[in-house]
## 1
Amino acid sequence: QKEVEQNSGPLSVPEGAIASLNCTYSDRGSQSFFWYRQYSGKSPELIMFIYSNGDKEDGRFTAQLNKASQYVSLLIRDSQPSDSATYLCAVTVGGGGSYIPTFGRGTSLIVHP
Amino acid sequence: DADVTQTPRNRITKTGKRIMLECSQTKGHDRMYWYRQDPGLGLRLIYYSFDVKDINKGEISDGYSVSRQAQAKFSLSLESAIPNQTALYFCATSELNYGYTFGSGTRLTVV
């Protein structure tokens, strides 16, 4: 059973701070890792993906992957109230070609002014 | 126009009725999916299709059926709706392993 775990939160940070969102996964064969942002009542939106160990930066977002410890993180620098949303982690296992992701249940982030 | 369009956006239906949710996409992706989202349960896969002739059950397919009418169209049917099928339904598309593009969702209420 593939599992992807996220703390449901809410994680509350002040405006301008760094928000750190974490995700752990159970399948060591996992190869691809995705972060989606979902505003309340809206659809998830892909914001980052990472395939290799280490950091990947895109604007204010940084994804960090550590396959040995089986976790992936999303850092949001200079957090803004507009970043308040639920962040979903998704993981796919390689091989076989299906690439159907397993989603975590999401972490709610609140950025307060 | 949105890349992935779902209709209707909201629907209230009665127990026992048949209902169809429709999804169309302009991404040109072969892969299409139907998910439902319930508070506290996250996204759960109902059905997926990798091409027009390929249909696969997801983790919660009971009570649902799908039709892939064309590369761009994938519809979800509830044969006889029941109240515990009240949820937010999302269609999504993808190209291999490059992440999903989701539609705007259909909020379905079964009374």
Note: The mean pLDDT of chain B is 95.
## 2
Amino acid sequence: GAVVSQHPSRVICKSGTSVKIECRSLDFQATTMFWYRQFPKQSLMLMATSNEGSKATYEQGVEKDKFLINHASLTLSTLTVTSAHPEDSSFYICSAGGRRLNTEAFFGQGTRLTVV
Amino acid sequence: KNEVEQSPQNLTAQEGEFITINCSYSVGISALHWLQQHPGGGIVSLFMLSSGKKKHGRLIATINIQEKHSSLHITASHPRDSAVYICALQRAGGGADGLTFGKGTHLIIQP
């Protein structure tokens, strides 16, 4: 099946710094990718929909200036957590597929972010 | 009330047992996904269903659109099946294209 690669898998950063997470579709073109966040013992929550060549669509309550999404090509979407705070520590995961491809959803490996 | 409810939240069983995980939802959907999340966090898609039943190896997924209910079954369970199983909805119509997730069922299969 299709492969989505996410990098890095784990990152520790200091408060106030920015962290970039990459999500690549390796064997298909993804005009749309999704970014999710999962806090411990909670369900995954959609943060934003990343659209190639246009602005991302953010879910209610997600700050677009804090979580910058860039989808400059059909195979790469990036999520940058700007001015990170300890409360941003979470598991971030991207996916592609689903309705837009009329296929199952394919997930990246996820990124565990710890802000100290 | 959550749009998607899974039961049970936690399940511990012995190797070889037949496992059933249930998912009920309250919104219109175009498809329902069953996902497997491993302890490290990685997620694997098991099934995408819009009607009927699908089978892959020891895994079987069914959905009843009228009753807004889906089940995931594992036959001849094995310790390597231990994971969190998540039901996720692909909503019908407009709105977010991303999935809406249940809280997951934490399954432990003991040898």
Note: Chain B touches chain A through 24 residues (CB under 8 Å).
## 3
Amino acid sequence: GAVVSQHPSRVICKSGTSVKIECRSLDFQATTMFWYRQFPKQSLMLMATSNEGSKATYEQGVEKDKFLINHASLTLSTLTVTSAHPEDSSFYICSASTAGRDEETQYFGPGTRLLVL
Amino acid sequence: AQKITQTQPGMFVQEKEAVTLDCTYDTSDPSYGLFWYKQPSSGEMIFLIYQGSYDQQNATEGRYSLNFQKARKSANLVISASQLGDSAMYFCAMRVTNAGKSTFGDGTTLTVKP
């Protein structure tokens, strides 16, 4: 099946710094990428949907200026957590899908565990 | 708006037995897809099975089968011959055709006992 990579897998940073997470589709072109946040033992919460070459669509309650998303190519999307604070500590997962096939599942990256001290 | 309900926060099953994980959904759209994912403790989301709203037959993938009852709006996952490695969190999800994004349930934590 299709492969999506995410980097880094784990990051620890100081409060106030910015952290960039990369999501790459390795063997297919992803027209759409999704960014999720997940707290322990909870469901995935969609943060934003990004389409290549256009601005991301953010879900209600997600701060656009805090969670910057860039989808510069059909294989790469980045999520930057700006001025991170301890409450931003979470598990962030990206997924990618191709257009035109609704039976096509979203392919998930392995996730990034962010810990803000 | 779409909604997915998984009413079982936790389930236990004996190794080698079958188990059913419940999922009900709500949507007014006639065309949609239903998905099940497995999330082990490592965090990765593993796609298990897909059912389209117009599919006449229930989907099957190895030990996984989806009991699709459209009139009841339910899409239960059946795992046959449970293995210790099946212990994980399981999510039911729905995506309306052409909508792009998926809606996830709260998940069910399955524990397989030896």
Note: Chain B has a mean pLDDT of 94.
## 4
Amino acid sequence: EPEVTQTPSHQVTQMGQEVILRCVPISNHLYFYWYRQILGQKVEFLVSFYNNEISEKSEIFDDQFSVERPDGSNFTLKIRSTKLEDSAMYFCASSRTSGGVWQETQYFGPGTRLLVL
Amino acid sequence: AQSVAQPEDQVNVAEGNPLTVKCTYSVSGNPYLFWYVQYPNRGLQFLLKYITGDNLVKGSYGFEAEFNKSQTSFHLKKPSALVSDSALYFCAVTAGLSGGYQKVTFGTGTKLQVIP
């Protein structure tokens, strides 16, 4: 069964450093998402991406964040200058279309645990 | 704005007993409702969804959920709990509007502990 994959599984970085989190969505999916989950808290939406542009972003997704689909398979989340409060589990998700219509079920990757020191 | 409430931080149930994990929602328009499960150090695994049709939906691993429009609830149920069901369960909602993508909003999660 196709799965969303994410690399790395864990990332430790120093405050102020740039990090890039990588995701490979399910191959026939066209909608892509990033969520984060701070330890012990709920899953929070960050951004959605379709047709090479951002569809929607939350208030968390400020100028320090960016997303990109650099090729036909990868979907990345970049944090330009990490802060302590960026420490969280970051989940990538994807969903497909059927007949050109967005399908509602999002399939999640295993996550990248980011620790900012 | 859409929201999800999971009133119980933790639910404890004895193995073999029925379990219920509660969820209520608020959304403009028709709700699309989901349950996801998260095992320790793992991602979110899709369990089931309600889009339209029969109010009782069946999902993976013997789980089912009942949509109740009047009570704006979507409680997760299983007739006989297994120790392996112990995990964190998230309810989620999006607005079933036509025209494409809608953001999914998650609840705070309920930890299910099945006691042998």
Note: DSSP finds no helices and twelve strands in chain A.
